[in-house]
Amino acid sequence: MQLTDKVVLVTGGSRGLGKALCLGLAAEGAKVAVNYFHNEAKGIDLVAEADAVVAEIADRYGTEALAIGGDMGSEADILAMFELIQQKLGPLDVLVNNAAALASGPITKYTEAEWNYVFQVNVTGTFIACREFVRRLLEQDRKGRIVNIASQAAFLGSTSGHLPYDSSKGAVVSMTRAIAREVAGKGINVNAVAPGMIRTEMVAGRLAADEDKYLARIPLHRIATVEEISDIVTFLSSDRASYMTGTTLDATGGMMMR
Ligand SMILES: NC(=O)c1ccc[n+]([C@@H]2O[C@H](COP(=O)([O-])OP(=O)(O)OC[C@H]3O[C@@H](n4cnc5c(N)ncnc54)[C@H](OP(=O)(O)O)[C@@H]3O)[C@@H](O)[C@H]2O)c1
Is 61 one of the annotated active-site residues of the chain? Predict the structure, then answer.
């Protein structure tokens, strides 16, 4: 995939899909900045998780990686992350916006604060990261790639009540297209992937409660593995996808068939 020595940032890279993205990109030779935040509510030590991803990358692929803390809901954190990556790994070639916040409940119960938090991380965080990346690429006269992780929920919504999340993913799809069109002449390709259900912690509770209900909606009749989505992101991160920009790829096991 021609990613040897390319510098890549994966947000929310310490676990779930993000971890698989870090490993998939490193397998193709990329140097990976593994962003982590924290998950105090669940008592998970994400620093240790991110360090473990860095160690696994070194062991399996022998490429450089860097665990880098930062809240994708904070502009200051995002700017500091970009600076640190530049210093430690060199200029960034690929930005993968994977981190996302989820909220659950019926429309009648959401507070403005809950709505704003999801948008702060999923939409504003993605925008700030894209803006900083594009600024740096233009200043350095370099080409680059952005891959945003959207969701089928942007197009289909959810039956289990995730309105702010679904809406934020719709904004990510629009943002992908808008930035792609604006920077297409500058050698910067911007694409997104819209996964269906992937077997990660984000959906573990729903799958444990009613996996058959979800399987019945999926023509391929199975839940995606993180590796299946990682392969698509790795492709979009590489020069093999050089003629693609502004697209959102359907990775839903056939739920959308657009
Ligand atoms: N799983 C699915 O079925 C599915 C389907 C479609 C799309 N997706 C998308 O795939 C991506 C990865 O999801 P996943 O399934 O791997 O979910 P996950 O296991 O819940 O992981 C989400 C990741 O995002 C991080 N994150 C959340 N808020 C953050 C913040 N403010 N700053 C930095 N990182 C933050 C999380 O860290 P913390 O835990 O510390 O917050 C975690 O590393 C997301 O964009 C999601 O919307 C997932």
Answer: no
pTM of the complete model beyond 0.85: yes
Q: Give the count of alpha carbons within 13 A of 208, CB side only.
A: 6
Listed by start position, the domains of the chain span 7-251
Closest ligand 1 atom to 16 CA = 16
Best of 35, 37, 201 for a ligand 1 pocket test (most atoms within 8 Å of beta carbon): 37
DSSP letter (8 states) at residue 176:
H
Q: What is the pLDDT of residues 50-104, one digit of tens each?
A: 999 999 999 999 999 999 999 999 999 999 999 999 999 999 999 999 999 999 9
Helices marked H in the chain — which ranges? 16-27, 46-61, 75-88, 112-119, 125-140, 153-156, 163-183, 201-215, 226-237
Task: For domain 7-251, say whether CATH 3.40.50.720 is its number.
Answer: yes
| CB of residue 122 inside a 6 A radius of ligand 1 | no
